[in-house]
Amino acid sequence: MRHSVLCVIALILLGCQSPKVHVFMETLSESRQAQVEQSLNEHHIAYEIASSRTPSSYSGARLNKFPGNENRALYDTLRELVQHLGFQSLDIQDFNQDKHSFSNGHVGLYLIDESKVRTVPDLMVAQHCEQSERPIVFNANYRWKTQDGQWRGDWRYYQPYLTLRYDSDDGYFEEQSFELHEGIELTPFGEKPKLTFVAMGHRRKAMPILNCDFVAVIMD
Q1: What is the pLDDT of residues 131-176, one digit of tens each?
Q2: pLDDT tens digits, one per residue of 46-63
Q3: Is 66:104 a contact under the CB 8 Å cutoff?
Q4: Cis ω on the peptide bond leading into residue 160 (within 30° of 0)?
Q5: Nearest partner of 179 among 163, 165, 160, judged by Cα
Q6: What is the rounded distance in angstroms from the CA atom of residue 4 to the CA atom of residue 11?
Q7: Beta strands 134-138; 173-187: pairing state
Q8: Closest by CA position to 25, among listed 95, 86, 96, 105
């Protein structure tokens, strides 16, 4: 009987424990990352700094949690924490995408510095691939398309990494990541900054545009 009571107490205590918070914040400065950790420690929140990267489609402050897992006290604390860091709100999601799902007892906290997202030229040229010299347009709403409209998708930029996701009407998608290389281009107007986004993965994507490098010369 005593053993059964102890088991019940253990289960109750286990159910009352706060979830572990997996923190994704690679776009934040070192000082802001330290501020996040200090706040989590002050509130006695169990956390772990995630080693994987934030999905390119995420923005602002976001919390991924297990469906049905409600911990109002924790979520209210995290909401206050992110607002103190300068984020307008905390977007809480039950059903997660981009393979960032969490089991019961774990949540993912994503903090994205938006100033490091939108720093890609509006127009670049695809090079070193079958689609050489094909212009590609980057819109402010994080959509990209080839100038002829043949291919399109979503994009995100966390300096120095650009991620392009191709999507189609039938649900098929592919992704490719690119790393920024900065240089100088000699033009009729003198030396100008040259930005080259070099494909990081294998150049064997079904969508040829994802096998390219992208180049822009900043003339301003």
Answers
A1: 667 899 998 778 999 988 888 899 988 878 899 999 877 777 899 9
A2: 999 998 778 767 888 999
A3: yes
A4: yes
A5: 160
A6: 11
A7: unpaired
A8: 86
